[in-house]
Design a protein that fits this description.
With 72 residues, the protein is mainly β. It has no helices and 6 strands.
């Protein structure tokens, strides 16, 4: 079993995380002060190049706890 992390942040690319095992990129950012948006891309290369497709977009309201799937 490898001790290397499977999911890791991409250096100075704030909010981007790559999962090497599943070849996916996740981008997490704030849409507003109380809403987080999570984008999941179909390739790890999406963190470095403008390629790949968005598989899913989820908005989470931190005040209400409501989650909304924008794209599935």
């Amino acid at each position: 079993m490898s001790t290397e992390p499977r999911i890791f942040p991409i250096g100075e690319m704030d909010g981007f995380y790559v999962d090497k095992r599943f070849d996916r990129t996740v981008h997490v950012t704030f849409d507003t002060e109380d809403v987080i948006v999570i984008d999941v891309f179909n390739t790890a290369l999406a963190a470095h190049e403008p390629i790949g497709e968005t598989l899913s977009i989820v908005e989470i309201n931190l005040k209400s706890g409501a989650a909304r799937i924008v794209k599935n």
